[in-house]
Amino acid sequence: MSIDDQTFDAQPSTNGRPLAPGRVRIRTEPLPGVIGAPAATESATESHVHVAPESVFEADGVGIFYGKKQALIDVSMRVRRGQVTALIGPSGCGKTTFLRSLNRMNDSVSGFRIEGQIRYHGHDIYGTGVDTVEVRRRIGMVFQKPNPFPKSIFDNIAWAPRNLGMRSGLKERVEKALRGAALWDEVKDRLKDSAMGLSGGQQQRLCIARAIAIEPDVLLLDEPASALDPIATGAIEDLIHSLKGRFTIVIVTHNMQQAARVADRTAFFSLETRGEKPIGTLIEFDETEKIFGAPRDPRTRDYVTGRFG
Length: 309
Prior knowledge:
By secondary structure, this protein is α/β, with parallel strands linked by helices. The protein has helices spanning 95-101, 132-138, 153-163, 170-180, 184-187, 200-212, 230-243, 256-262, 288-293, 298-304, and strands at residues 7-8, 24-25, 55-66, 69-80, 84-88, 112-120, 123-124, 139-142, 218-222, 248-252, 265-273, 278-287. The longest helix is centred in the last third of the chain and has 14 residues, at 230-243.
C-alpha cells in the first residue's frame, strides 16, 4: 500500500498512558505472529502462546465523554490486520462512538473527551502533535447514509486524490477504485454523469470507492447497508469479502446475520448501569463463531439469541 515506508508522527501522550514512539516506520507488509497476553475481554483460550496476525489497533481502557456525560467506559480490544471486525449491540451502547474514535471523527463534537489510549500500529493517535488529516487518510470511513458529492461520478472519486496532491495517473486511480468497489462495469460509460443519479446501493459503493481511492490502510464502515434493500445489501457484503485482506475493516452493524456472514471477529457492546445512568461498554470480544455459537458471557448469549436488543 501507499503508506509503506512512510512515518507517522506521534508525540508524547498527555493522558497518562505509556508513550508511543515517534517517527517510527509503519510496516504494512505481512509480519511474523506476535505473542502476548489477551485483553481482559478476549477469550481465555487466547492466553496460550500462539501466533496471531499483527494488531492494527490496540484500545486500552478507553472511555469517551461528551461534556459531563460518559458514553463509553473501559473498552480494551485489539483489531487484527487484514481481518473484518464487527461491532454489534443494542442502540445507544457506544458502537458508533467507538468506531468514530478510531480515526478521530469525534474531535469536532462539542465536549468530546477521551480517556485511555488508542494505538494505531503502536502510535497513540490522540498524542500531542498527531496530524488528524493524515490519520483520516490512512483510516477511511464510510457512513450509514450514502453521501455522494453533487459532482460527477469521476469527480467524486478524484476529489480526495486531487486535494492530497495525488494527481499523477488520476484516471487510472479512479478506474482502480471503481473496480475495487465492484462499480466500474456499471458506470464506466457515464463517468461524467452526476453521482446523485445512482441508486442507493450504487451510491454506497461509490462512497467506498471514494474512500479506497487514496489507498488507506483501514476502512471503517458505519452500518453501510442499513438503508439498502436485500439485493444491494448482498452486493455490499460481497464487496466487503473482496476487500478483506487488502484492507483491515471494522464494521458497525445492527444485523447480527450480517456480522456472522462477514466478520472474522465480533465485539459485543451493551449498556451497564454504573451510577445514575447506563454507560456503553464492551462485554465480549472473540472469534465470530464463538460469539454466535458459544459465548462466554450470558449477556452476549441473550443478545445473539434475541432475548433482548
